[in-house]
Amino acid sequence: MKLGIVGLPNVGKSTLFNAITKAGAEAANYPFCTIEPNVGVVTVPDERLKVLHEMYNSKKTIYTTIEFYDIAGLVKGASKGEGLGNKFLGHIREVAAIVHVVRCFEDPNVVHVDGKIDPISDIETINTELILSDMEVLERRIQKTTKNLKGDKSLQKELDLLNKVHAFLGEGKSARAMELEEDEAEFVKSLDLLSYKPVIYAANVSEDDAAGEDNEYIRKVREFAATENSDVVVVCAKIESEMAELDDDEKAMFLEELGIEKSGLDKLVQASYHLLDLISFLTAGEPEVRAWTIKRGTKAPGAAGKIHTDFEKGFIRAETIAYDKLVECGGNLATAKEKGLIRSEGKEYVVKDGDVMHFLFNV
Ligand SMILES: Nc1ncnc2c1ncn2[C@@H]1O[C@H](COP(=O)(O)OP(=O)(O)OP(=O)(O)O)[C@@H](O)[C@H]1O
Ligand SMILES: [Mg+2]
After folding, report:
1. Does ipTM come in above 0.90?
2. What phi and psi values does residue 92 have, to the nearest 5 degrees?
3. Where is each TGS domain found (predicted)?
């Protein structure tokens, strides 16, 4: 599952993407060997692994990763095929979620395509292209459904909903901002609309605004994002791309000097992970501590299958303890067992974020 980085030209997408790629290049254990040039891989920060690493005196720590896709500058008229428009929209269709980079920095040396810094107008320019493309999709679907309705009256409900979504988009609003019943949401999701994809707005600020109070631009972006229940992450792409060259200790020092608590890129990656509805379960031992990605709601055998297909096929049960509980016991499994904190879970167990798992299986 990939996230696509979108935004107007010259807002800092590639700068952010380079930070991601460089940070990812250090992820020594990245499982894929060939990767397209515009796909960046980054490890998902997880403080818990550091703690487990100390506890178990592990030889290796393996973080989980997510992929970002640098989708080149989208401009006004893209939905009409301008500026390689259709190609870009096609790329957006392929991603599960969107990171929308918004320029919130002033710099006379960096040209803005519209000549002024106006984050809301920028956001709307991009969103409008996605909305227009969605409206075309809906119009075709409405035509088809209207035709089929003659032979199948049960399609009326679907047609009503298609018209409702079309009208909503017609007001310039993204489909994800619609309030829908559960069954309606399921249908709308199946339409694969671009403006229904979950979004994080990445407010790209200047070095001076990377810490402390929100500037006026960030405040506007937050206001807008709230109208569609989207998240905002403040990031200075420039700082992040410089920092990506540093090792962990140097990074910590650099952040302290700037008075920044946590790197914007780390925050963005974590928010992206949540946006995709992904969680991590953990495995811990002396050879390695490791985080594994699963979709929220995955049951124990499915989680086991992430490690090895044999674990899933021959799944017997899982011994599991929540990360917090394990830490309470100082990482001592014997103590945890005595206290009854290690649970034995079967096939129906829904794995939770931070579960430390040990799978038992038949071969
Ligand atoms: N936070 C920031 N503060 C100051 N300058 C920045 C910041 N982020 C990016 N820049 C500068 O803005 C310029 C444009 O950045 P970048 O090339 O990343 O944009 P882009 O969105 O990828 O553009 P395009 O769509 O044309 O590919 C670069 O000179 C970059 O150094
Ligand atoms: Mg670029």
Report:
1. yes
2. -65, -35
3. 277-361
CB–CB of 73/10 below 8 Å? yes
User: What is the CATH number assigned to the segment(s) 297-361?
Assistant: 3.10.20.30
pLDDT at position 36? 62
Q: 222-234 pLDDT, tens per residue?
A: 999 999 999 999 9
Backbone angles phi, psi at 163, to 5 degrees: -65, -35
Residues with CB under 6 Å of ligand 1 are 7, 9-15, 72-73, 105, 107, 110, 204-206, 236-238
Atom 14, ligand 1: residue with shortest CA distance: 10
**Check: CATH 1.10.150.300 for 125-195?**
yes
Per the annotation, does 241 bind a ligand?
A: no
Q: What is the pLDDT of residue 29?
A: 44
Pick the CATH number of 2-44+64-116+197-275 from 2.60.40.2660, 3.40.50.300, 3.40.50.2000, 3.30.70.580: 3.40.50.300
- The structure's pTM equals 0.89
Of ligand 1's listed atoms, the one at least distance from the Cα of 16 is 18
Cα of 143 to ligand 2 centre, how many Å? 38
CA distances from 132 to 142, 174, 306, 341 (A): 15, 10, 39, 54
- Average pLDDT over the chain reads 89
Q: Domains of the chain: which residue ranges?
A: 2-44+64-116+197-275, 125-195, 297-361
Closest of 201, 272, 228, 251 to residue 13, by C-alpha = 201
On whether 229 is known to bind a ligand per the annotation, the reply is no
